[in-house]
Specification:
The protein has a single domain, classed as Ribonuclease Z/Hydroxyacylglutathione hydrolase-like (Metallo-beta-lactamase, Chain A, 4-Layer Sandwich). The radius of gyration is 20 Å and the shape is globular. Helices cover 31% and strands 19% of the residues. The chain has 9 helices and 12 strands. The protein is α/β, with parallel strands linked by helices and 311 residues long. The structure holds zinc ion. The site of zinc ion (ZN) has 7 residues, from helix 4.
Length: 311
């Protein structure tokens, strides 16, 4: 992303308003951006007009997309609604995100009992867990998830360091999104593939490690919807920095498992929802990136070697 690009757009629009002239954006005349190197997302993918931004994916499956996180990341969550229980998948990075997800989930079927599951250990997926535990709601997750408040404090510092404005950085405004947020690890341990019954609706919890050892996915066979956490992130480079080549080999096996499920709709941990043939392409894209990382021996976000990677 070019620095200053957004600021220039804002100045142009404001200037036009000052002169009471409407601003027209001729989208059709824009030249498509061709990816020249690894790391530049395909413009066609980013202009998705299909299921990518939808919240209601089926009568029982919902996505909550675009929750705030450290730029350029936003993080996704979702929920699945049975006749008696609603399963919330991931809780965002903070208590506010958790409250938002909870509000949507309750609105769809207010009489249901709520359950929560964490797709992995990273704080963008478990930051809102304490909000739910404080309400007495069970949080499922891999048995090895064991985060600490010290790690949360480090994360707040990282968040703060991303603020471009020095005055805001000096005021430590990066802590504001994390107000009332503390660590709560899952209280219902998952150690193997599991089935949860939500009331005339079964969901499958499938271990899909690789990104971290704690990654799992939630599959809803009735609707062919898969919530896969960060095993697959659409458009973004997946984050391989937390693992080794051995972990990346495990990741490939998890991708094979997802491919074998053949979901029609895939809700990734980050990025837009994909459907149909795009699911196959996203699995393949992440697979190629992981395979190349294994081949060269480092994560794609390391060094300038990213030019060697496939797009
Ligand atoms: Zn994530």
């Amino acid at each position: 992303m070019r620095k200053g690009h957004c600021a220039e757009r804002v100045r142009l629009v404001n200037g036009a308003r000052d002169q009471f002239k409407p601003t027209r954006v001729h989208v059709a005349k824009r030249r498509p951006i061709k990816p020249k190197k690894y790391g530049k997302p395909c413009a066609a993918r980013m202009l998705d007009t299909g299921i990518g931004n939808k919240m209601r994916l089926s009568s029982k499956c919902f996505a909550v997309l675009g929750l705030a996180y450290v730029p350029p990341w936003t993080v996704n969550a979702g929920f699945v609604v049975g006749d008696t229980h609603t399963l919330i998948i991931d809780t965002g990075a903070n208590a506010s995100a958790a409250a938002t997800i909870h509000g949507y989930a309750e609105a769809v079927r207010p009489t249901n009992n709520i359950l929560v599951i964490s797709t992995e250990q990273h704080l963008d997926h478990v930051g809102g867990n304490a909000y739910f535990r404080d309400l007495g709601i069970d949080v499922y997750g891999h048995a090895r998830i064991a985060r600490t408040d010290g790690e949360l404090a480090d994360s707040i510092d990282e968040y703060n360091a991303c603020i471009p404005d020095k005055a805001r950085r000096d005021r430590h405004e990066g802590a504001i999104p994390l107000v009332n947020t503390r660590i709560a690890n899952p209280n219902q341990a998952i150690v193997a593939d599991t089935e949860l019954e939500l009331g005339r609706l079964s969901v499958q919890i499938i271990l899909t490690p690789g990104h971290t050892p704690t990654n799992l996915s939630v599959f809803v066979p009735d609707d062919s919807v898969l919530f896969c956490g960060d095993c697959i992130v659409s458009d973004y480079l997946p984050n391989l920095e937390g693992g080794t080549e051995k972990d990346w080999q495990v990741w490939l096996h998890s991708l094979d498992r997802i491919r074998a499920l053949g979901p029609n709709v895939l809700v990734p941990g980050h990025g837009r929802v994909v459907q149909g043939q795009e699911v196959v392409l996203e699995i393949q894209r992440v697979q190629q990136i992981v395979e190349r990382a294994i081949g060269v021996g480092f994560a794609p976000t390391k060094l300038d070697q990213t030019a060697l990677m496939p797009s």
